[in-house]
Amino acid sequence: MLPNIVLIGFMGCGKSSVGRRLAGLTGHRFLDTDDLIAQAEGRSIPEIFATEGEAYFRDVEHRVLSEQVGVCGVVLSTGGGLVLRPENREMLRRLGVVAWLDADREALFERATRTGKRPLLQTDDPRATFFHLLDERLSVYREVADFRVDSTNLSHDEAAQSLLDGALREGRRFEY
Ligand code: S3P
């Protein structure tokens, strides 16, 4: 049986759009940690950041992830900073095969800033902030992922298919 598939990656990599398609391909249910947080809090992610700050957001993020322990048959898309806490990384590895959806730096920046709503980019120099955070996190994504898909030149459907191929290949660590 196909294990859960966990999607990690930086803002703009397409985790939500591609993840939905991947769920369609696999028959898995689609879950998104940002959606779970917004539901639990009854307000949007930008509102939570603006009124409570990042530390509060990270606590709720950790809590909603903990609530997914033991879930089966899901594609779980995660917020770009969820991997920052080591205990979250551990949980992701137990939950399922971990796929890093990545893209060229400029492509990520262009996609992430299209909507202009990302709370961490509300700075004087969003471009510098973006690349600084990306550089800080690359090694963490590399460490936690079972495999990586570069979506720079892929459509959402092609990226979803590559993720499925990778999950079938790497999912063997779940065959006990
Ligand atoms: C964040 C990424 C966002 C969201 C929050 C913090 C981050 O999710 O969880 O704004 O720290 O990179 P996306 O990766 O879906 O943009």
Quickly describe the structure.
This protein has 176 residues and is of the alpha/beta class.
What does this structure look like?
The structure is a single chain. This protein is an alpha/beta fold and 176 residues long. The chain has helices spanning 15-26, 33-41, 45-52, 54-66, 86-95, 105-113, 126-144, 156-170, and strands at 5-8, 29-32, 74-77, 97-102, 147-150. A five-stranded parallel beta sheet has the order 2-3-1-4-5, sandwiched between helices. α1 (15-26) crosses α8 (156-170). The longest helix is centred in the last third of the chain and has 19 residues, at 126-144. It is globular, with a radius of gyration of 15 Å. It starts with a strand and ends in a 6-residue tail after the last helix. The model has no long low-confidence stretch (mean pLDDT 96).
Keywords, separated by commas or semicolons:
176 residues; alpha/beta; five-stranded parallel sheet; 8 helices; 5 strands; binds shikimate-3-phosphate
Share in helix? 40-55%
Bound molecules: shikimate-3-phosphate
Structural class: alpha/beta
pLDDT averaged over residues: 96
Order of helices and strands: EHEHHHEHEHHEH
Hey, roughly how much beta strand do the residues contain? 5-15%
Oligomerization state: single chain
How many separate helices? 8
Biggest sheet details:
5 strands, parallel
Q: Globular, elongated, flat, extended or rod-shaped: what is the shape?
A: globular
Q: What is the C-alpha radius of gyration, as a whole number of Å? A: 15 Å
From the N-terminal CA to the C-terminal CA, the straight-line distance is 11 Å
Question: Which ranges are low-confidence, i.e. pLDDT below 50, for 5 or more consecutive residues?
Answer: none
Q: What strand line-up does the widest sheet have? A: 2-3-1-4-5
| Total beta strands | 5
